[in-house]
């Protein structure tokens, strides 16, 4: 059997700390991956003179699977979001952001289990038509939705729901105001939903969705929506289970996938043994499921859950007093 090669981007700030913790856990559970390390972000800018070197793109294209730590895109003109660039380069049209409650966190809710399926390449994030007037007083940008793009993401959400035994898919939109773009998305979502009579289909305006997520989040199961709305909603959902440190992300295309921590690089605590690696560990769990290694994914998830629920050697953001190293060792101990 050919050994699975994984492109690993350690990233900026706390990225190396949490990525290294995660690869130790993957090794411990017996994944037998071969890691090809690549640079992106500020570390790549310093070493190679560019944020996203061609060598990194080539390694992702070769291996088809990448595990990525948080990256920093410098603020200012001339710097394009690295994450957006990766999604465009590899046509990673689906962004999968699950959130699940873990006892032992500071979350306000229990028993949350929601997956946000976000269209990843169109809408306001496409970067089309961005202009600023010469006098700096007016700025414009274009939002573009295609029937093909909407159908792909909504079908992805329903297929995932059916595969995982989910009962309900809610299409989130703003078709009451954005009648062209959001209107097309909603129309396509309704059409796709009719093909899945075994799954409950719902629709909700985005502002009401945000309110309902705060007031009664348990009504949601799978949410499917456009790029900008998905970016906002998925962070809101992370807040329901303890913050971005508890939320992983997967970017999935036809033949390539990148799994990542969704929080920032937190340079102020980099190298200080303070970071919570849970987000990228859960991203690795998503990666294992994508690779049909569900048994190993469940072992890692269970070990992680046990550490957090027990309060044994947890990081400060989880109410403990230990660091990244101690937290990781606690997970490794449970995998024994």
UniProtKB/TrEMBL annotation:
Q: Which GO annotations describe the biological process of this protein? A: isocitrate metabolic process; tricarboxylic acid cycle
| SUPFAM superfamilies cross-referenced by the UniProt entry | Isocitrate/Isopropylmalate dehydrogenase-like (SSF53659)
Domain (Isopropylmalate dehydrogenase-like) ranges: 5-331
Task: Extract the InterPro entries matched here.
Answer: IsoCit/isopropylmalate_DH_CS, IsoPropMal-DH-like_dom
GO MF terms here are: isocitrate dehydrogenase (NAD+) activity; magnesium ion binding; NAD binding
Enzyme Commission code(s) on record: 1.1.1.41
> Mind telling me which Pfam families this protein's record contains?
Iso_dh
Keywords assigned: Oxidoreductase
Q: Which family does it belong to?
A: Belongs to the isocitrate and isopropylmalate dehydrogenases family.
This chain's protein is named: Isocitrate dehydrogenase
Organism of derivation: Salinimonas iocasae
């Amino acid at each position: 059997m050919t050994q699975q090669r994984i492109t690993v981007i350690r990233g900026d700030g706390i990225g190396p700390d949490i990525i290294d913790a995660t690869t130790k856990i993957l090794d411990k559970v017996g994944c037998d991956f071969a890691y090809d390390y690549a640079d992106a972000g500020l570390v790549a800018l310093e070493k190679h003179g560019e944020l996203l070197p061609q060598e990194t793109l080539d390694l992702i294209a070769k291996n088809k699977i990448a595990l990525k730590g948080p990256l920093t895109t410098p603020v200012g003109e001339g710097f394009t979001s690295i994450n957006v660039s990766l999604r465009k380069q590899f046509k990673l049209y689906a962004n999968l952001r699950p959130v699940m409650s873990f006892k032992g966190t500071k979350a306000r809710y229990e028993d949350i289990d929601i997956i946000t399926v976000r269209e990843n390449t169109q809408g306001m994030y496409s970067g089309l038509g961005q202009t600023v007037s010469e006098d700096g007083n007016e700025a414009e940008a274009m939002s573009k939705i295609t029937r093909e793009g909407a159908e792909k993401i909504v079908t992805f959400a329903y297929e995932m729901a059916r595969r995982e035994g989910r009962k309900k898919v809610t299409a989130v939109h703003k078709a009451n105001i954005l009648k062209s773009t959001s209107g097309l998305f909603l129309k396509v979502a309704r059409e796709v939903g009719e093909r899945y009579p075994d799954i409950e289909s719902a629709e909700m305006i985005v502002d009401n969705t945000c309110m309902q997520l705060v007031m009664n989040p348990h009504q949601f199961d799978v949410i499917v929506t456009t790029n900008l709305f998905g970016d906002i909603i998925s962070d809101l959902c992370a807040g329901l289970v303890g913050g971005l440190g508890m939320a992983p992300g997967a970017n999935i295309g036809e033949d390539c996938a990148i799994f990542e921590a969704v929080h920032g690089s937190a340079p102020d605590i980099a190298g200080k043994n303070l970071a919570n690696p849970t987000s990228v560990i859960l991203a690795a769990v998503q990666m294992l499921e994508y690779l049909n290694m569900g048994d190993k994914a469940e072992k890692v998830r269970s070990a992680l859950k046990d550490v957090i629920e027990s309060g044994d050697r947890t990081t400060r953001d989880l109410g403990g007093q230990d660091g990244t190293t101690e937290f990781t060792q606690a997970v490794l101990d449970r995998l024994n």
